[in-house]
């Protein structure tokens, strides 16, 4: 009895040794990695910052619903409508749903697969084939050939054992793409909201421009009437009349252009929001809000976390790392198990008998040895694709820093120009007030007093243009800073 135990233990040790030797020989016999390549480095934190001479009076990051700082319900309603109905938003949401489906599809590859099988095969057996004796018709021997109706009914199962993590890496890559699509959706939301705000304040600026043009047109019309009356009495030449009329026509042309611009802005907003001809509410004139741009004192990795487009690219890079891992895992043996339980018989009458039961258990090993360079080419392609994404990501980060720096610089310049323009208006207004004071005392004509308003109106138009540009640049800065988006995941890339 003891000898049998010793023999049994020895046999187990021998079997274990054989299995270990088989595994070692399998690993040695695998295809070798020749084209792994070197990962490109990600951008350094020192390159994600602004120059020291770029700063604004206020600092900070935008809020999540950044447009609420303007306290304009009309603007909020338009942005909410666009975010709900814009075709680009629907496309982005569909891409997210598609990516989630892809994750589930890849994830099911490592799960247990069970199928129901049913097969009916009416066949004529070849006398020269593998089961040639069954072609004979000898009932005494149980042979009723050559025609048979074979039936197979049962359950089949398969399971892939993910020893080297290939399946896990593929799932991680799909998850990375799904996360990238989510970040892209936030980027589309930011794009739409800033575009709507830009168009909205473009309309509001043009409304105020029309008010100034109307005021200027009243002065020009009075000037034409006054010069026309003087020319009719022979008190002055017709030249002054035509000059006044030319100025009036120029103002009317500007008015027509401004009205057309409002229609263009509205049509652009309608297309952006995916609204029908009457799908947008009427946009009523409101006063322009006071611009209060803010710029963070430092950017660094915080900018990467707050820019949804950069987060999307980062996830694509992360997914490329997982594809590299999957490509490496393909060099190692893969193991799967297939099984079948059911009934198999050459005669349908015998199909569901006990003797027709069939059980198959088939462990399988796939060992790549000579693949003609396919696996190395796949790994090389995955590595080069990853390096390309890293370089695109690095360039996108530099472009993001550039956008923030350029917009901040423009806002600095516009702020200084606005202050100078206000002082200029005060100087021009002094001359207007002087002429009006002379008119009140009867020292000059009403025409001269009214015409003295024209330079002030022209400077007010210039100031309005600067205010509109500041609002536009402030919204652009909000977009450059991510518009309140904040990623939960870490932002530092670790190439591998």
Question: Briefly, what is this?
Answer:
By secondary structure, this protein is an alpha+beta fold. The chain is built from ten helices and six strands, in the order αααββββααααββααα. Strands 1-4-5-6 form a four-stranded antiparallel beta sheet, with no helix packed on it.
List keywords for this structure.
single chain; 496 residues; alpha+beta; Outer membrane efflux proteins (OEP); 2 domains; elongated; disordered N terminus; MdtP family multidrug efflux transporter outer membrane subunit; lipoprotein; palmitate; signal; transmembrane
Structure report:
- It is found in: Cell membrane; Membrane.
- Keywords: Lipoprotein, Membrane, Palmitate, Signal, Transmembrane, Transmembrane beta strand.
- InterPro entries: MdtP/NodT-like, OMP_efflux.
- This protein is of the alpha+beta class and 496 residues long.
- It folds into two domains: 1-30; 31-480, Outer membrane efflux proteins (OEP).
- It is built from ten helices and six strands.
- It has helices at residues 2-28, 73-85, 87-107, 166-232, 238-273, 300-306, 308-329, 374-440, 446-451, 453-480; strands at 113-124, 137-138, 143-144, 147-161, 334-345, 357-366.
- The strands form two sheets. It has a four-stranded antiparallel sheet with strand order 1-4-5-6, with no helix packed on it. The chain has a two-stranded antiparallel sheet with strand order 2-3.
- A hairpin with a 4-residue loop joins β2 and β3.
- Mean pLDDT is 87; it is low at 1-22 and 25-29.
